[in-house]
Specification:
71 residues, mainly alpha, Helix Hairpins, two-stranded antiparallel ribbon
Length: 71
């Protein structure tokens, strides 16, 4: 996720708080937030996929995938 996208999300949030957003800006904000959340989930999933658990005997086990309900 590029810094410019996060900066734009923050800029729109400030503008919404201070003066309000046009319909186009509201739509842009929605799309940018969805992209940010998708990138965050992908990053988190990749991090969790690379983790292993080590028991007291030194045996390594990968984490198993679970279905997480989408909101």
């Amino acid at each position: 996720m590029g810094k410019n996208i996060v900066d734009r999300i923050n800029e729109l949030a400030r503008k919404a708080k201070n003066e309000g957003l046009t319909e186009e800006e509201k739509q842009e904000q929605k799309v940018l937030r969805e992209k940010y959340i998708a990138a965050f989930r992908q990053s988190l999933t990749a991090a969790l996929d690379s983790m292993v658990l080590v028991d007291t005997d030194g045996n390594m086990k990968k984490l198993r995938k679970m279905d997480i309900p989408q909101q």
